[in-house]
Design goal:
The protein is an alpha/beta fold and 362 residues long. The chain has two domains: 151 residues, no CATH class; 140 residues, Rossmann fold (3-Layer(aba) Sandwich). A six-stranded parallel beta sheet has the order 2-1-3-4-5-6, covered by helices on one side. Strands 8-7-9-10-11 form a five-stranded parallel beta sheet, with helices on both faces. The protein is globular.
């Protein structure tokens, strides 16, 4: 069917200006490029599909006809596809685009496409593993010393950035490192990955499970926070250790340090699970999505009268406004109840204090 496909484009704004720096091999790690979500999704997906002889083209401007895959950050809110354009928006952790006919989500539990918001067509696609990934060096053998976090420091739980935390680790005979982004592909000297955004039970429904995929490919066990993306991928306790408090992190580290057989079982399990997100398997998923979902949607769109297309855009715009209003209301309610809980604790403390004073015998 590939010979009968409509034009398929990956939109990377002004990519012609970067043509000399774009790698031919998607497995080459370019720190300044692949840390940007636009490049991680658009460029990497294009390069891997192109290497698999799938007919597609990288463009710096949106054409007037065909299927266009674009990152949400590259699309202004008021962009509206023409009568012969199917816009596939790679959502990342952004708000949906009001005029995209299809959104690609990274998390199986992405909430914006459930229940009453089915007006948006969506498809789940796993993120690519880290390009140029260097696995743990086998010469480290059974050493268990180095705990590492791969990611932006701002996304690490505050409790894991204190002097007290580092002291607790040293007492366990361990070292903790926030890996510089130039080395996000290098797991050669890492014995366990720790990644927790917070201990406040947020589900992070718009975040991917990429860190989990990477540790499976790197041959390293992982201790991760309670996030829906990880939970959706979990098939056994060997996939990763889930934690919801600093104490649970310390318990998990002690177990991994002291139980070598358990540690080795996690690594072997990860080797098996890594098969699911090997680039060639993700390429197959992309091919299937484009051929089986995007192309029929494109043909249907092109056969839809223009007045009906405009009506759909209006419906999506109103749905987005209602969604944003619900989110804002929920945020305000959460803030109110958080303040209320804090106030109640303060009042309770004051009552206890004055009660203790009144009970003193002079």
């Amino acid at each position: 069917m590939a010979n009968n496909l409509p034009p398929i484009y990956f939109y990377l704004p002004n990519w012609e200006n970067l043509a000399d720096t774009i790698p031919k091999d998607p497995d080459i790690y370019l720190p300044g490029m692949y840390q940007d979500g636009v490049y991680c999704w658009i460029l990497q997906t294009y390069l891997r599909l192109k290497a698999d002889n799938f007919p597609c083209e990288l463009v710096g401007a949106i054409p007037t006809e065909g299927i266009v895959l674009a990152h949400r950050s590259s699309l202004v809110d008021n962009f509206r596809p023409g009568a012969k354009i199917l816009l596939v928006c790679m959502l990342a952790d952004k708000a949906p685009h009001p005029n995209a006919q299809i959104h690609i989500v990274l998390n199986r539990q992405e909430g914006i496409f459930k229940n009453s918001e089915k007006i948006w067509q969506s498809a789940y696609m796993p993120h690519w593993r880290q390009p140029g990934l260097i696995p743990r060096n086998a010469s480290r053998g059974d050493k268990f010393e180095n705990v590492a976090y791969f990611g932006h420091e701002r996304n690490l739980a505050p409790e894991l950035k204190t002097a007290t935390w580092n002291k607790q680790l040293h007492e366990l005979g361990l070292n903790f490192q926030i890996v510089n982004r130039d080395r996000w592909h290098d797991f050669s000297n890492v014995d366990v990955v720790l990644a927790v955004r917070s201990f406040d039970n947020q589900d992070y429904a718009n975040k991917p499970a990429t860190k989990l995929y990477n540790v499976w490919h790197a041959g390293v066990p992982a201790i991760l926070g309670r996030e829906t993306a990880y939970q959706a991928e979990r098939k056994s306790d060997l996939d990763y250790i889930e934690v919801s408090s600093l104490n649970e992190v310390l318990v998990a580290l002690k177990r991994l340090r002291d139980e070598q057989n358990f540690r080795n079982a996690m690594v072997e399990n990860g080797r098996i699970r890594a098969e699911e997100t090997k680039p060639e398997n993700v390429v197959k998923q992309w091919r299937n999505f484009i051929i089986e979902e995007a192309v029929p949607a494109y043909e249907s769109w092109c056969n839809t009268p223009r007045w009906k297309q405009k009506t759909l855009f209006q419906q999506q715009f109103l749905s987005l406004k209602m969604r944003n209003a619900r989110i804002n209301l929920q945020t305000q309610m959460n803030s109110f109840f958080s303040l209320l809980r804090t106030s109640n604790k303060l009042i309770a403390t004051i009552i206890i204090y004055f009660s203790s004073i009144s009970s003193i015998n002079y």
